[in-house]
Amino acid sequence: MFFAPRAGLSFLGPFCRRLADALQSGIDIRSIVARESQRARGAARRPLAQLDEAIRRGDSLTAAFEAIGEFFPPLMRRMIEVGEATGRSAEVFAQLADHYQLRRELRRAFLLSIVWPMVQLGLALAVVGLLIWLLGVVNAMTGGHVDPLGLGLIGGRGLAIYLGAVGGVALVAAGLIWSFRRGWWWAARWQRWAMRLPVVGRALRDLALARIAWALHLTMGAGMDVPRALEISMAAARNAKFDDDSIALRQSVAQGASIAEAFRSLSGYPDEFLDGLAVGEQSGRLSESLGVLSEQYQRRARDAMAALTTVAGWLVWALVAALIIVVIFRLAFFYLNTLNEAARWR
To answer: What does the angle CA 227 – CA 70 – CA 98 come to, to the nearest 5 degrees?
Structure first.
């Protein structure tokens, strides 16, 4: 289950857009899904074949998507249920397409901004590896044992150990990122910790609030009952802090509090977000106010991603600088010790 394929953003955006356009054109859902199944490639082929089979069997769109499992994200499956129940499936798919397109753009901007620091880190690590190998060549030629790095890694064997260590660290980092994206339970502790960091915490909060406002706009606009809308919208944040708040929010609403009052009773929500909810409820135009909030926080999400990119870039730069400084000092001390030894023998 943990290793089952899941749809990526590059697939979800265009897929939802094609479904929205086809439904708006009046094409039957069976024909739409059959066509998508025929054009599917790679990891999407089997899930879409199962979706096509379920639709042909007479299952509802909601049941068909649920039967596939985790290939499609939970938010998408919940919103399909909303769209089908309210007769607004085309609109829901269109907004899902915009949502996944925005997320893809944010991710692409982040990756492009981090490429050069990562290249520099790779070059610095490669230089250290080359130095380790060259030390082995020099020692073999002179019959000595020169180790200016002081790591005990020399020659081919030392290079193999070094590459294994670097590869191990890279695998651990990749595993952590993968587990966060999969939403493993133990990652929640790190998410809560990250929310308390000065710059990173605010960026993560703005990204989460953009998703919450967007999901609330969709669910409330579709006429969903408030507790269910809050449950889906808080889950859309994909953040443990907001998962924790979801239960308290629904309890407050069940006890008669308004949505704005329920959010205001919790900590960590900015005044402009709370004021937008309050104005929307007081004016009877909550869905419209949530739409405005969603647009505002989508703009903030871009700024938040830029902030995260800056932080990540500086962290990589700091790692490169630390690596270079350590190597330089090691070589400098080795050179000075060599000079001292030579002076002592005179």
So the answer is: 70
d(CA 97, CA 94): 5
Averaged confidence pLDDT in the chain = 79
Q: With beta carbons less than 8 A apart as the criterion, state whether 220 and 286 touch.
A: yes
For residue 172 the two structure tokens come to 């651990």
Give the per-residue pLDDT at 1: 47
Task: Please state, in angstroms and rounded to a whole number, the distance separating the CA atoms of residues 16 and 106.
Answer: 18
Q: Which residues contact 209 (CB under 8 A, 6 or more apart)?
A: 237, 269, 270, 273, 297, 300
CA atoms within 13 A on the CB side of 114: 18
Q: Could you tell me if 293 and 218 are in contact, meaning their C-beta atoms sit under 8 angstroms apart?
A: no
CB-CB contact of 132 with 159 (8 Å): yes
Question: What is the Cα 48 distance to its own chain's centre?
Answer: 24
Look up the pTM and report it. Answer: 0.68
Q: CB-based burial of residue 31 (10 Å sphere; 0-12 exposed, 13-18 middle, 19+ buried)?
A: exposed
Per-residue pLDDT of 84-139, as tens digits, reads: 877 778 888 888 888 788 778 877 877 787 787 788 878 888 888 888 787 777 77
- Distance separating alpha carbons of residues 270 and 238, to the nearest angstrom: 19
Cα–Cα distance for residue pair 86/79, rounded to 1 Å: 11
Surface-to-core class of residue 3, CB atoms within 10 Å of its CB (0-12 exposed, 13-18 middle, 19+ buried): exposed
In the chain the first and final C-alpha atoms are separated, in Å, by 71
What SS3 state is found at 308?
A: helix
Which pLDDT value is given to residue 339? 57
- Per-residue pLDDT tens digits for 250-274: 888 888 888 888 888 888 788 888 8
Evaluate whether 210 touches 300 at the Cβ level (below 8 Å): yes
Residues of the chain with pLDDT > 70, as a percent, come to 86
